[in-house]
Amino acid sequence: MVNALLNLAAEEQPDPVMPHLSEVILGLVAFLLLLFVISKFVAPRFEKLYAERTAKIEGGIEKAEQAQAEAEQALQQYKAQLAEARAESARIRDDARAEAEQIKEELRAQAQAESARIVAQGTAQLEAQRAQIVAELRADLGRHAVELASRVVGESLEDETRRRGTVDRFLSELDAVSAPAKN
Amino acid sequence: MGRLLAEGDKFAPPGVKDFFLPPIFGGVTKPMVLVVLSIIIVATFFLITTRNMKVVPSKWQFAAESVYDFSRNNITREQIGSKEFRPFVPLILTLFTFVLVNNLFGIIPIIQFPTMAKIGFPLALAILVVYPLHHYVGIRKFGLGGYFKNQLFPPGVPKLVYVLLTPIELFLKFFMDPLMLAVRVFAAMLAGHLILLVFTLGGEYLLLQAPVVLKPVSLVAWAFAIAMTFLEAFIQVLQAYIFALLAASFIGRALAEEH
């Protein structure tokens, strides 16, 4: 075929383009043997490794994304909690203030009631004492007046009714005099 | 490599005959041993480095992963498309590493023979593996008629042009492509190795056989041999890449809806 080309080179030399059958067969067998080994053992290992690596990288990315999402979520949660805590504290402060106000109000009312009660009690006590004093004075006064009158007159008055009327009138006058001074 | 070069004072340039070494024993030749060695190297490398794989790779696992990743994503997925590339990853990886190691044998000390410079090996890969496979997957996907219509009658062309285009497509896709796939790497390896031989053996000849005045020139020749070795290393990797890339592109072309 093409061997005329290289035949010019040398006369006695063997023809390099004519294949030796033994070499063709050996080449083919050797190649197929190698192909068998590579496709049976080598290539699957590589493909398996590639798949593993892809899975690992994808898994890594996925994991990172997940972690990021989780962090984001945690941040949101913290923010929400913080806001809630702030609101809570404000509410507690308001409550405390209101409660303090209320307590103050209550205490004031209580104090006022107490003072009123004390004043009333004092008034009543005074009233009672006054009444007692008046009663005592009245008795004393009657006695003293009679004694005084009997001393002045020097004798016991005969007319009972007249004497009583005189004394009563005198006492009433006394009352009338003292009444405006009471208030 | 124990090669006797010159007869007397005359420099015998290295040639194609240097690629036909005598058998080591029986019918077994050096390239045959190297092919077997190459599959042992590749298989061992991958089996050991992938034995206990971690999500966070170790140094060796990282190296193996780089090779696999390159074959899988840069070659196979690019050419076949991310929908259907998966079943072809082992094939392309095997093609790439197999051709790569066999090419690199050309510059590894002691071994120093690019196996792919023997056309039998690339031919086996191109004609017996890639060629039937890419037609098979195409036919499996579109059916026999659909596949040939896809391949031979590209859409968007005036009807009359098919008279010219279809025979060309037929010739290219069903005859030239697989042959060129094999010849490309074979020729690059053969030529590259020949260049190395010329500079190395030429330098040796200059040092040993040439007149005293010319002896220092051998250093130049060897410097060139070293420079060419670097170039060869690059070409060997590149050819392995191209081989795998084209194989993937044939499969991608067979599976494409339309192009």
UniProtKB/TrEMBL annotation, chain B:
Pfam families: ATP-synt_A (PF00119). Keywords: ATP synthesis, Cell membrane, CF(0), Hydrogen ion transport, Ion transport, Membrane, Transmembrane, Transmembrane helix, Transport. It is found in: Cell membrane; Membrane. Coiled coil: none annotated. Its main location: membrane. The keyword DNA damage does not apply. SUPFAM superfamilies: F1F0 ATP synthase subunit A (SSF81336). InterPro entries: ATP_synth_F0_asu, ATP_synth_F0_asu_bact/mt, F0_ATP_A_sf. It is a multi-pass membrane protein. The chain crosses the membrane at residues 31-49, 88-113, 119-139, 160-176, 182-201, 213-231. Belongs to the ATPase A chain family. This is ATP synthase subunit a. It comes from Actinokineospora xionganensis. The lineage of its organism: Bacteria, Bacillati, Actinomycetota, Actinomycetes, Pseudonocardiales.
